[in-house]
Fold this protein.
Amino acid sequence: MTATKRATKLQDLPESIKVIDSVQLENSNVQNLRGFVQLTPNLLVRETFRSNETFLTMRGISSAQGALPPVAFVVDGIQLGSNDFINQDLLDIERIEVLRGPQGALYGQGAIAGAINVVTKQPTNDLSINAKASYGNADTMRFAGSVGGAIVEDTLFAKVSGYYKRSDGLIRNNAGTRITPYEQGYVRGQLNYESGDFHGYLFGSYTKGNGNCCIQDIVNKRQNGVIVPGFRTLTGAYTLVDVDDVTGNPGPTSNVLGKSWERFRNAGLKLEYDFDPFSVSLVSGYNYVRQRIYGDADYTAPSAGITQLVQDIPFTTRVFNQELRVTSRDTGPFKWLIGAFYQKRREVQDIAVGLDPGAPLNQRPGSISTFVLRQNNVTRSTSYAFYANASYDITNRLQLSGAFRYDRDRQSAVNTLAAGSNKAHTFTQPQPKVQLSYKFNKDLLVYSSYSIGFRSGGYSQNSAFDNELTKNYEIGFKSTLFDGAAVLNAAIFHIDYQNQQISFVQLQPVVLRQVVNIDKTGIDGLEVELTAKPTENLTVSAGVGVVNTTIEAISANALTTGLDLNALIGNKSPLVPPITLNGSIDYVMPLSDNYSLLFHGDYRREGGYNFDLANTIRTGTQDLINGKIALQTGRWQAGIWANNLTNNRYATNVGVTGIPYRYPNQPRSYGVELSFKL
């Protein structure tokens, strides 16, 4: 694996890591981020109000809307600069490496909880052709393929890949209209150059699509035994009715069908030269995102006493990364890596929320004339970092490792429609890491580590929030059993978490989105993972992740209005399932010399978690089952598949500031597929 920026055997790394190879990805029908999360303990992904944004929780540390993600996302050694690229389809993947625990020493401020490293299949001298077509319910279809090979044998290689997908949408509103349609096309090209000690890699991709947004409903309330619509403001105590009943309580009723339009551009260049004692790498990356959403902002049908609102929000993100890295050879007891990182980021959100223009023909971008919120927020960030990583083999069994990174992030924010709104701040943080590992034999490694993680503060709707800091303590072991037939790994950890970032959206009395901080949180947890191959044709895997969070200190902020601060001490952090269980089984049944049947099933249990600080709004424990059966013959495969087989429905997000808007998970999907490989 290469997520530590050095090729290393998985079982020799003193880290909690989940690796999913190309066979597992294919058997599990993984097409995007949600698919491999299904196979990974202590990692949660949640849908949000627009189709291309994804929220992650890893080891009790969650995404906050308007802040940096807690997990670094890296493709072929180049770090992506926007959350929006994370939710694109995975195509032609060799493996995915999920590193849990802070990786700031290598990846900086965006890796406070971990890193996800995606390695794509590289072109070779041999011609490779891959094609796959699938069709499912809701008229969902996907066509994907790639062609790669040598332009100049042993020297210059190329690959072109892409996909097209569309769907009428799996979710319907109360009127029976499908409200989650999408259509997206993607193309990616790459060139690889090899000449002696020099290696070059250049790629570029372009994505264009239309999606959906703003499909929330508003959960009904119960007060004094009477059920009232959730959009009504109540005085006195009340409870929410059946938070996980996302189909009829009341279900989506918006009179404006939300839409989104997106364009993504992504490019990267990696140059490497191997000198005798070390290698030098220069890595450049550019990401551009342009999206616009238009949809309901009150999430209700027209009704007496409700001000009908719409939202129209274009936004763009531009990110440029530059990294220089020098890596020692792997020979000898002392190994080292040093580097420098530069990033320039610019984000623009042109927020317009206003009165619904009325007739459907008028419900389109640019149609709002009476505003309740109007902002044009421009945020700029310039970051510098220096890092070093070294390990020393004290003996042939005992190894000491250390790392250090220093980040400096200068941010500025302005609402160009409000005079005097300019703000600026510089966030800095040193991030040390130390590890000690001992290898009892070739099959058993134990380790311990201490590290500091960092996520930069910033500005959300021109409102400032502070940076996060974690102090992480971890011990674990890695073992290989039964002459390589099984692998059993485990880790336990404790995190002292300062200034945890929490985001919220407020609809009344004014429309507002903010990120606030929780002063101090304690996190304890563990991961245990087992992969076994009892026979040549049978592979099983299982994993469990446990996280216990405790709010230890909290100050008054916009999210605690009306709450007793003392009563919040000891509560659980929002958006953190206390347990995740994963299991999968793959069995290949030979039918003849040329034909076989593949049976795949995977199961995941997510413990119920809270959406609010008071721990009164929560989703229950959920069970999810996926499956696939495929006929395999040589280069061809034809199969049937199903996701969320039991059609388990629940809430993935609920508003916690008076208006309990709610976002649902995806219902059952199923279909057929045909693939070819050369």
In short: Helices lie at 22-27, 33-37, 104-107, 565-568.
